[in-house]
Write a structure and sequence with these properties.
By secondary structure, the protein is mainly alpha-helical. It is 66% helix and 4% strand. It folds into two domains: 21-102, no CATH class; 114-191, no CATH class.
Length: 193
């Protein structure tokens, strides 16, 4: 009985794969098969007929050539975007990340890069560094519970903190409001209203 409960508890806390993980895995497998075949990509795609998102990612990986870091960054961007936009068709996400890779950009920037501390306060920088380390090494660590008692993981808590920092809350402004605040201040300075 004890073994069964331990299994049940383990399965409840097992990390969930990202929404696009299966597509990324399939794209990597198809890329390996394509390279092993020695065929041009268009012939390979015509014969193997991969699903549209896999085909789009194959094109991106092919364009990245031997630059595996560039291809890997594109695949990570796909995974982040699929997670951030679960209702968006994967074929569209794949097309968007390939286009972004061509332009040297990302569709959904890496949160760890975006969350780098921009303060000269050493205590704030240390807290941000530790929070990022926990999120990177233990994203499924339970750090709290919501109002319904549902566990909140480190990655969920950090994602919520980033959303609130960007968009604000009911009682605070966020980074996204900075331009509006600047316009309002300029308007006030120019008109006195």
């Amino acid at each position: 009985m004890r073994g069964r409960n331990a299994t049940a508890n383990t399965s409840e806390t097992a990390p969930r794969p990202s929404p696009g993980a299966d597509i990324v895995s399939r794209a990597r497998e198809e890329r390996a098969r394509h390279l092993a075949s020695g065929q041009p990509l268009d012939e390979w795609v015509g014969r193997s007929k991969p699903p549209a998102p896999v085909q789009n990612l194959l094109i991106g990986m092919s364009e990245a050539g031997r630059n595996t870091a560039r291809a890997d960054a594109m695949l990570r961007d796909f995974s982040r975007t699929a997670e951030a936009h679960p209702d968006m068709p994967h074929a569209d996400i794949a097309a968007d990340v390939v286009e972004a890779m061509r332009a040297g950009k990302e569709v959904t920037p890496d949160a760890a890069k975006a969350a780098a501390p921009t303060t000269s306060d050493p205590a704030a920088a240390l807290i941000a560094e530790r929070a990022q380390a926990v999120e990177a090494s233990q994203p499924d660590l339970v750090v709290g519970a919501d109002a319904d008692g549902k566990p909140i993981t480190a990655s969920e808590a950090m994602a919520q903190a980033r959303r609130e920092a960007a968009t604000g809350t009911d009682s605070t402004l966020g980074v996204d409001d900075a331009d509006l605040l600047r316009v309002a201040a300029n308007c006030h300075l120019q008109t006195g209203d």
